[in-house]
Amino acid sequence: MQPNIWFNVCALCILSTLIGLYYVKFKAPFKKYYIFLAMSWMALVSTVASLCNNVLPGHVPVWVLQISNCTYFVAQGMLLPSLLLYVHSLTDHSLSDWKRLVPWMVPAAFSMLLILTSWYSDSLFWLDDGGVYHRGSMIWLLYLVTAFDYLGILVRLVRSWRVIAPGERESIGIFLAISLTAVFLQLVFPWLLVENFASALCVMMFQLTVQNPELILDGSSGMLNKQGFSNLLAPMFDQCRSFQVGFLMVDNYHELEKVYGYTRLESRIGVLVSFLKQHPGVVYARLDSDLFCFLPENQQSDQSWTNLLQDLDEDDLMTHLRRRRIGVRVQMKMGVINCPKEAESFGALLGLFDMAARLPMANGQDAFRLSPVDVQNLRRRKLIEEQVRSAVKDNSLSMVYQPIYDIRAKRFCSAEALMRMYTEKTGSVSPAEFIRIAEDNGAILKLTRFAVETVCRFLRTAELEKLGLNWMNINLSAVDCAQENLSSRMLEIIHNYQVEPGMISAEITETAFTNMPDSVLANLTELSRAGVTIMLDDYGTGYSNLNRLCSMPLDVVKLDKSLVDHVCTSESARIVMENTVSMMKRLNKKVLVEGVETKEQSDYLISLGVDYFQGYYYARPMDAVHLEELFQSQLEPVAP
Predict the structure, then answer these.
(1) Is 206 helix (H, G, I), strand (E, B) or coil?
(2) ∠472-534-459 over CA atoms, to 5°?
(3) Model confidence over 347-386: pLDDT tens digits?
């Protein structure tokens, strides 16, 4: 019966289209995609060879048909082993444990040997003088090897059942069912050439389901998206491989979007995309509308990085954009992150990108490159941010207390509670560092609650009021003051520990009441009515509205250390200090000066009528035990 070649013709059209689309649109740097491409090519070669086998007899020499038949069997024989590799790639992107597949590849190697020797032995097939194909006596061995290949794929699929996604499992199962049916049909009806058509259908199904490039490619740029880049880096992180990831960030993207609109801006960003893509040997990704990443394929070569960074020099890039006359002023940040040293996971990498986005651009700059020191600082900030979020639960916080000296009573009358943080990963962290980070990520609310509870517990258990302590200062951040329920939360803790509200002093900064006057005023008024002392902290470092300052329920104003540093050496500093103290006195505010470190400073400030001193000249911060001992010592009579 005359063979039906139309199945092969359809298969040829399908496979040619899919392979063309892969190179034009769907190319991705993953083993899974490379193996899929190899499967597509094998199916295409098998289809072309099958067409030649059934169209060319009588028109070409027999040896040409002999080559064509060998090619057909080789391509068909490698299709199922390739599918086994494909299934394996779904569980191990790097194929690092490929050796376990060797036993399953032995039969395929045996079949290749049979195919190549069949030219002489006629064991699998032979051609008569007219070039007509005939099956050999050992053709059944190929079907046996095929059955073994199916078994290997099923075993690998079952063993990795929980690892492989449900959609991928279903597609592989359908592939096996369709191809097995086609093998059976062609075995029973040799003239019905459906094997290649079945392979083409399976490849097309994989392209639409398992491959699904839209899930890993950015639609506008054709680069990997966040999911695709994560998939690419996942095995590198899992194996703790050392590699570098470069990034380029359009810092003012969202501002430009408001001006130009998304569509017009994207057409201009396309110029940037084309500039990046002109550099070969680099994998590019667009993780967000304003964030591009690049990863050289040859990570082992330092020279490849040097050449790439030279090509991506910000001056050259800006020149390229200006020549294209895109009409927008693009501001960019660039940098390189060493993994896993600076980012041990994809999430940590995204965290560094997020922090880099917060770095301010210098005035007049269109682009700047982050130095290794900048990246290290980002890494440290990210690490501290993680520690701050769990600081209370991890018991990494503690409190120390710096005594405050009363000039008129000539004794220590109070103390300021200062928070400290220590972790195994970061060691001791400066309050100036972790408090700012806690304010940015919202963890400051938990830290403040910890401080209030710790101070109240200390006041309750040590009975410091009996030892002569008038109050204990607790610092409140601008974020704390913005909370509508700040006063109720603080008073609830104070009452739970049965502490007199008058034993607590709330320190707020100028920034708190300058930026959010209404909410701050309501909170402070309620605390003041309850008996809590209200103190303005760091006066002299901000831009105080004096009218607002007069309306606030302030009891004490603490002058910042910067006002004290030069009072003994600068006439201007003395004038500022004298007028500031005089003004506060006339406003009926108590004055506390912090940062007093020398006797000369102390004597001068005493002459101005300052009420309280705080600084290293009088006492350094100390733990609770030593503070209690200090106040205890003030009660002991002085020896004559």
Answers:
(1) helix
(2) 20
(3) 888 888 888 887 776 655 555 667 777 777 777 888 888 8
More confident residue, 615 or 165: 615
- State in Å, rounded, how far the first CA of the chain is from the last one: 129
pLDDT tops 60 at residue 639: no
Token pair in block for residue 97: 């444990």
Take residue 53 and report the two structure tokens written for it: 């086998």
The pLDDT assigned to 93 comes to: 46
Residue 544's Cβ-side half-sphere holds a number of Cα atoms within 13 Å equal to 19
* DSSP-derived secondary structure for 142-192: HHHHHHHHHHHHHHHHHHTTTTS-HHHHHHHHHHHHHHHHHHHHHHH-TTB
What are the start-end ranges of the E strands in 407-511?
411-423, 427-429, 471-476, 504-509
HSE at residue 422, side-chain half, CA atoms within 13 A, is 5
The CA dihedral of 574, 577, 579, 584, to the nearest 10 degrees, is -160
Interatomic CA distance for residues 289 and 251, integer angstroms: 11
pLDDT for the residue numbered 95: 47
- Cα 250 to the chain's mean position, in Å? 17
The rounded distance, in Å, linking the Cα atoms of 527 and 452 is: 14
Dihedral sign computed on CA atoms, order 87, 88, 93, 95: negative
Tokens of 115: 């195919």
Distance, in Å, from the CA atom of 438 to the CA atom of 386, rounded to the nearest integer, reads 10
Q: Give 281's DSSP letter.
A: S
Banded pLDDT at 413 (limits 50, 70, 90): very high
CB atoms within 10 A of CB 349: 24
**Beta strands 533-539 and 556-559, pairing class:** parallel
CB 155 within 8 A of CB 163: no
Q: What is the pLDDT of residue 532?
A: 92
Tokens of residue 456, six digits:
């109240």
Q: Which residues are within 8 A (CB) of 40 and not within 5 positions of it... i.e. 6 or more apart?
A: 15, 18, 19, 22, 203
Q: Are 88 and 98 in contact (CB under 8 A)?
A: yes
Is the dihedral angle over the CA atoms 65, 67, 73, 79 positive or is it negative?
A: negative
pLDDT, tens digit (0-9, with 9 covering 90-100), for 68-120: 888 888 888 888 888 888 887 777 544 456 667 777 778 878 888 888 777 77
For residue 81, say if its preceding peptide bond is cis, omega within 30 degrees of 0. no
Neighbours of 439 (CB within 10 A): 17
Average the pLDDT over 3-23 and give the result: 85
Q: State the DSSP H helix or E strand holding residue 240, giving kind and residue range, or none if neither.
A: none
Burial of 154 (0-12, 13-18, 19+ CB in 10 A): middle
Query: Tokens 């359809």 appear where?
Result: 10
List the one residue out of 492, 368, 392, 382 whose CA is nearest residue 444: 392
- What CA–CA distances, in Å, run from 638 to 326, 467, 633? 81, 16, 9
Nearest to 237 by CA among 339, 305, 335: 339
Structure tokens at 191: 């003239």
| Gap between the Cα atoms of 406 and 416, Å rounded | 13
Would you say 590 and 610 are in contact if contact means Cβ atoms under 8 Å apart?
A: no
pLDDT, tens digit, 9 for 90 and up, residues 193-208: 788 888 888 888 887 7
Q: How many residues does the chain have?
A: 640
